[in-house]
Amino acid sequence: MPAPAAATMPAAAAAGHTTKRNNGKSNHNTHRHTNNSNINNNNRHSTLCNSIAHLGDSRTNLTVNTTPTGTTCQRLSEMFRRSIASSTQSSSRENTYEEIYPGPDPKHIMGSLVFCIHHKQGCKWSDELRKLKGHLNACKHDATQCPNKCGAQIPRVMMTDHLQYTCTMRRTRCEFCQSEFSGAGLEEHNGSCGQEPVYCEAKCGQRILRGRMTLHKSKDCAKRLRRCAHCQREFSADTLPLHAAQCPRAPLACPQRCDAGPIARGELEAHLRDECQSLAVSCSFKEAGCRFKGPRQMLEAHLESNAAAHLSLMVALSSRQGQQIQMLKSAVSKLSINYTGTLLWKITDWSAKMTEARGKDGLELVSPPFYTSQYGYKLQASMFLNGNGPGENTHVSVYIKVLPGEYDALLKWPFSHSITFTLFEQGSQSGQGGVAESFVPDPTWENFQRPSNEPDQLGFGFPRFISHELLHSRPFIKDNTVFLRVKVDPSKIVAV
To answer: Any idea where the MATH domain is (predicted)?
Structure first.
């Protein structure tokens, strides 16, 4: 109702005032103005009818349903025309708003179909508006005062749960100690009841009555801290037995049952190794072959009475070790032998060796032996730093010797491979320079026949390989070191 009245009030008021101002004028003007007012009012009546069709109460969320019969609009239009006619005929009084726009019939509104205000909460009731109040008095979704007078407004459908579980004024008992409390008192009591079973605070996994928690933590809890009686360290009660079986300070009896008292576990090994008189020990000359083994207290007497025998055992051991050393040296030397057919001989401390060669006639340097191949000839180079024969005191002489080898019986004799000696310049900028000399062995020379086991096997080479003057004029010596290469080539008849 208020919405349609507010929408039409200004226009109605303007029409009333216009009628009053036109009083006393010609009928022609009056009727023309009245006709215009009737047109405007007819439009407003149409709006009013449409508004009444959608009448609703925003406060109570009511929905009014009217049938589109048009009866209400016709009655309002008729009343409006009568009001206008009366206003033009009588100019002695001013018409009121209620006389021009009478409200809709209250009986018609109260008979409108509405839904319950709690229909969004699930109430499916719908009926005439006049029955809404009676429905709300029994609607299970409508809120009512708690009968315990706790001050809460609770929907009827939830009242049972409220009275049983959430009402602060309800009377209930603690499920653990059976004491009676109000709802608020029970909430305060919860969390402090001594009869409530709770999990141990030390996380041992047991549920204990809250009132016995202190006693449990001090005597029964598997996670309570306990101190080791030997090392004074703290452990949880469930791990203390494991520690006790390994504690280094735990006292133990000697396993050899000696006279020593209890010994700490961590010191037992040292006791058995150094002190225990009952422990069976081996003789100090066990590696030499002595088989004695007995209590430590008898070891000293054994050593005194068997000194001569121990000496003999040590001599025999020394001899065996010497043989083993020679075998190892031979194996190492075999592993270091060169089987490539090329020897790169590095001669160090050149100045000292040259001085020694000048002071001692015939001083010869020999190289490590090498083979022409895996199963080939065994050779060895030699050098006279101060020269030999025609080159003595002026040149460096180099030679090659054929030594007895392991596979000489399978080789072809005499030795016929070409041999090249090369003395390298060091630090050359344009490639590796040097002095080289080569030769092809003469098969008639005794030097290249199958060698015997005599140590004085002669060599063949160049007594004037390089002069001392040339040796010092070019960078053959660097860092007091000289490099000589001896290369055997079976494919060449003439060396180049």
So the answer is: 340-488
Q: Decide: 172 and 184 in contact? Cβ < 8 Å.
A: no
CATH class of the domain defined by 337-489: mainly beta
Question: What's the pLDDT tens digit per position in 376-402?
Answer: 999 999 999 999 999 999 999 999 999
Angle between helices 71-89 and 27-53 (to 10 degrees): 150
At which residue do the structure tokens 């309800």 appear?
170
pTM of model > 0.70 = no
Identity of the amino acid at 210: R
DSSP H helices, 54-96, are 71-89
DSSP tag of 116? -
Return d(Cα 275, Cα 256) in angstroms, integer.
11
Q: Is 255 left (phi over 0), alpha (psi -120 to 50) or beta?
A: alpha
Sign of CA dihedral 203, 208, 211, 217: negative
Under 8 Å CB-to-CB from 395, ≥6 apart: which residues?
387, 463, 464, 465, 466, 467, 468
Burial letters 316-353, b for 16+ CB under 10 A, else e: eeeeeeeeeeeeeeeeeeeeeeeeebebebebeebeeb
